[in-house]
Amino acid sequence: MRILLTGSKGQLARCFRDRLPEDWELIATDSASLDITDSKAVRQMVHSFQPDAIVNAAAFTAVDKAESEKESAFATNAAAVAHLAQAAREAQARFIHISTDYVFDGNGKSPYRESDPTNPENVYGKSKLAGELLALAAYADSLIIRTSWVFSEYGHNFVKTMLKLGGEQESLSIVNDQIGNPTYAGDLADAIVRLLKETTPPRGIYHFCGNRPVSWYEFAQAVFQTASQLSGTPVPQLSAVSSEQYPTPAARPAYSVLDCHKIQNEFGIAPSDWQKALNDMLRKA
Ligand SMILES: NC(=O)c1ccc[n+]([C@@H]2O[C@H](COP(=O)([O-])OP(=O)(O)OC[C@H]3O[C@@H](n4cnc5c(N)ncnc54)[C@H](OP(=O)(O)O)[C@@H]3O)[C@@H](O)[C@H]2O)c1
Fold it and tell me: What residues does the RmlD-like substrate binding domain cover (predicted)?
């Protein structure tokens, strides 16, 4: 299988590269070699490589920055996704795109299903929702996987930020009124490889995330407990605070738990065992 991967220096892309079956051919492009907002470059790349599948791991992921850089967020997360989907359709390639739990407003009380109404609260969520809609409009066979709270050994993420801050400060205040599912990027990458192996290509929207919802505060507790058990990392004093006490430029959903039954029932793909993944990741660190 020939894969064109975008955003190849990001967390998901690097995990995907680590898990690529040996006999698959990969063109891994980063923002320097293929800026996905350049529709002409996208079309040329797809035309010359003729991939069997395009995996779009590129995104404008800076949630707070998106509030002041709306145009860039929409260019990358919406318009560019349409170009990629269109190019995939023209090449008769599969198109796999990643979206987010932040397409929901978080007012729900039970895990969000794929069919539940969306209502993003911030610019990032709005741009990602626009990307979903544009992808499906350009190419109905697009496969969109919504995920949440992604962490890995690569790039920037909550786990790495916590450990860095924990080494610098004796106490940390962490938001306790936003609930979501941490997801290990390697497990998401495994799920993508698995879906690419399906002979009847899946299409439409699927949710994939971690198996146990927590607040950011509880996630931080899990990070420090694991790090402390594995390597004696000192645990800072953790204080649970409300979103009101910790204002950020972008509002975030209070409850963005995704229901992952559809992907599990149809393909036997279990949710990410994020606590195990966290343990494995910190053991290797
Ligand atoms: N991280 C999360 O918590 C989270 C949660 C829910 C959903 N998601 C979604 O999951 C997917 C993967 O996220 P991730 O955490 O792996 O992201 P990431 O680590 O931030 O990586 C994103 C990559 O996209 C690249 N990129 C940005 N603009 C680009 C452009 N115009 N052209 C080409 N590449 C570009 C970035 O390159 P530069 O650094 O060079 O700009 C970066 O390497 C994204 O679709 C994201 O929206 C993530």
Answer: 1-284
Question: How many CA within 13 A on the CB side of residue 155?
Answer: 19
φ/ψ of 176, rounded to 5, equals -115, 5
Q: Which atom of ligand 1 is nearest to the CA of 15?
A: 16
For a ligand 1 pocket test, name from 112, 124, 150 the mutation site with the most ligand atoms within 8 angstroms of its C-beta: 150
Active site residue 124: yes
**Residue 96 CA, ligand 1 centroid: distance in Å:** 14
Query: According to the model, what pLDDT value does residue 285 have?
Result: 86
Distance, CA 9 to ligand 1 centroid (Å)?
8
The predicted-structure confidence for 7-36, as pLDDT tens digits, reads as follows 999 999 999 999 999 999 999 999 999 999
Rounded to the nearest integer, the mean pLDDT of the chain is 97
